Amino acid sequence: MIGYYISLALRSLRRTPILSALMVAAIAVGVGAAMTTLTLNYMMSRNALADKDDVLYAVQLDNWDPHEAADNPSEMPWEITYKDAISLLRSDIPTYHVAMHRWGGPITLEDSTLRPYTAQARVTSRDFFALFDVSFVYGGTWAGEADNNAVFQVVLNKSTNEKLFNGENSVGRTINFNGAPFTVVGVVEDWHPSPKVHDLNNGDFMKSADIYIPFGLHRVLEIQTWGNTNGWKPEKIESYEDGLGAEYVWVQYWVQLDSAEQRQRYEDFLTGFIQEQKSQGRFPRPLKFGLSKPSEWLVLNEVVDGDDRMLNWLSLAFLLVCLVNAVALLLAKFLRKAPETGVRRALGASRSAVFSQHLVESGCIGLAGGLIGILLTLAGLALIRQLSMGYMDSVASMDWLMMLSAIGLAILSSLLAGLYPAWRISRTNPSIYLKTQ
Amino acid sequence: MLKMHNIRKSYRTDTIETHALRDFSLEVNEGEFVSVTGPSGSGKTTFLNIAGLLETPTGGQYLLDGQEVGNLSDRERSHLRNEKIGFIFQGFNLIPDLSLFDNIDVPLRYRGFNAKERRRRIEKSLEQVGLSARAKHLPAQLSGGQQQRVAIARALAGEPRFLLADEPTGNLDSLMARQVMELLEFINQWGTTIVMVTHDPDLARRAHRNIQIVDGQVSDLRQNIAADEAAIA
Ligand SMILES: Nc1ncnc2c1ncn2[C@@H]1O[C@H](COP(=O)(O)OP(=O)(O)OP(=O)(O)O)[C@@H](O)[C@H]1O
Ligand SMILES: [Mg+2]
């Protein structure tokens, strides 16, 4: 019977092309607007670390101004100082721990026609790959000593290895980065989580690193972060060493704690550490530190803020307006066909058969609206990519889930919109429409 | 076949209540051809709609084929209508954008026949009304008489036991009216019970029995015949 209803629906749509087009357009525009905002918000609030949400923690230490908390919802600085990072790295409690920050510079190859280009780098301790589940294609991470001593080793991501070495196993080869030679020890899969949950300090949706270099190179290369540096007290910085010893925060710190017991021990460790620092005159504020799961970290950092959520509701409200229009149009269309419905009733169609027939017709309109709605959504997202000039590329795109959602939303909406008109027409007394024409 | 006892039907609007049928009692036997006459607004169509389960009476008892139909659900009533009853209207009521074939297909779809059985029945009923060659035509491409024959074919395709016709010749000229009447008589000879409302006394007389409805009631038959004869004389 459903096949019969579909063929009737198509015939009916063809009979009133303009009215049908209006209904399809109403649903398509509503779905397009709703899906554009929903997609953006959905992509923006994705958690690339969801698989390890129970065991990873972003670490915050409150070394801030005694008179004023850090100006963000967590009331603690997002990052920690270099010297605290070095101290925390000495703990053997976490399964893995990572101190890191963004860097970059020109890459060149000896004896190569490759033109020098600027690579995005991450200066990090060796656990980065294990902690964030970034898997190796070739080789592995550097030895532990590279986190404390100057060891010129590098891990490339796959794209970079492709560009520099045609994708061959490049372990043992040498690249020049920022003017210094580095030996390749490993190649990892490209890892560009969006939003960049592991480092939300500059550009939540930017690409992440092309290459990774050890944390022990700061002094010898006098590395200055390409990320954020924040401080609260004026300090006299006359040398690179002064900078490393200052209260400026610019290092992101993550730990993996696999059990509640391990987490408890780490909290005790942090408490002890801060108390010890307090006795040396640092950490003037009340003792406070933060351990946030990735999902909590995204919320805390307001990657999706209230305005975005407001926009979600607004777009759904807009869809509702479109639906109300569709209801009115459907009602007009169905009532226009009432004499035919009267004949069908006289010939044996039950109320529920009439209801189903009209609901199927609404569903067909919804399907058409959904498909066009997807096109409108894609156009909307393309426009956003254009306007944001690359900044939003990774989020302003639809995955299969969102495409299916769009169709689902359209069909659901049109079925909802068709519910009342279909019910109404199924209740009309057929005899009224069978009178002499 | 059909037995109505003290059927009442009233329509209520905001201001007035119309009693379309009052204490309406009638029995129609299997195989009969009954004509129904009466002044305009007397309740003839209302009676047919109730007989055909398109409307429910306000009160009274209605037995169709011995079955009390007053308390049936809409689904059951629709099923009975589909299986046992064929309708023919004054306005033909073909669906304008369906071909003759697809028009006749409508009741068979609701019956749930497979495609082969539907085709067989459609072709057979088109043949019965002499329009086999026109299966692909749209209703508007036919004359009024031909359209009414298609409507009859549609009513016949489900092989109903009971045919209800509301002024089937009302929109036709006398030649075509006679053709339609002959078709109905032919169908009746094959066993289908027919109740036909008509304003045409000649056609009414050709039925086995004529009943007259006045003011929502079956008026006394002998009195009617006397009145008729008085009119003729
Ligand atoms: N849906 C309705 N609502 C209100 N009143 C109605 C309705 N249908 C019929 N009536 C009234 O019921 C009465 C009987 O109507 P019905 O259509 O049965 O008459 P009829 O005998 O078929 O007349 P005609 O010969 O003109 O077709 C009329 O007074 C009519 O106005
Ligand atoms: Mg009438």
- Anisotropy-based shape of chain A: elongated
Characterize the main sheet of chain B.
6 strands, mixed
Helix vs. strand class of chain B: alpha/beta
Order of the strands making up the biggest sheet of chain B:
6-7-8-3-9-10
Q: Taking all residues together, what is the mean pLDDT of chain B? A: 90
Keywords (chain A): Cell membrane, Membrane, Transmembrane, Transmembrane helix
Domain ABC3 transporter permease C-terminal (chain A): 314-430
Protein name (chain A): FtsX-like permease family protein
Transmembrane segments (chain A): 21-44, 313-335, 365-388, 400-423
Brief overview, please?
The complex is a heterodimer of chains A (437) and B (233). With 437 residues, chain A is α+β, with helices and mostly antiparallel strands. Helices cover 47% and strands 15% of the residues of chain A.
How would you describe this protein?
The complex is a heterodimer of chains A (about 425) and B (about 230). Chain A has helices at about 1-15, 15-45, 80-90, 130, 160-165, 220, 240-245, 260-280, 295-300, 305-335, 340-345, 350-390, 400-425; strands spanning about 55-60, 80, 95-110, 115-125, 135-140, 155, 175, 180-190, 210-215, 250-255, 290. Chain A is α+β, with helices and mostly antiparallel strands and about 425 residues long. Chain A has a six-stranded mixed barrel with strand order 3-4-9-6-8-7. In chain A, β3 and β4 form a beta hairpin. The longest helix of chain A has about 40 residues, at about 350-390. The mean pLDDT of chain A is about 90. Chain B has a single domain, classed as P-loop containing nucleotide triphosphate hydrolases (Rossmann fold, 3-Layer(aba) Sandwich), CATH 3.40.50.300. Helix content of chain B is about 40%, strand content about 25%. Chain B has helices at about 45-50, 75-85, 100-110, 115-130, 145-155, 175-190, 200-205, 220-230, and strands spanning about 1-10, 15-30, 35, 60-65, 65-70, 85-90, 160-165, 195, 210-215, 215-220. In chain B, the strands form two sheets. Chain B has a six-stranded mixed sheet, sandwiched between helices. In chain B, β1 and β2 form a beta hairpin. The model of chain B has no long low-confidence stretch (mean pLDDT about 90). The site of adenosine-5'-triphosphate has 11 residues of chain B, from β2 and α1.
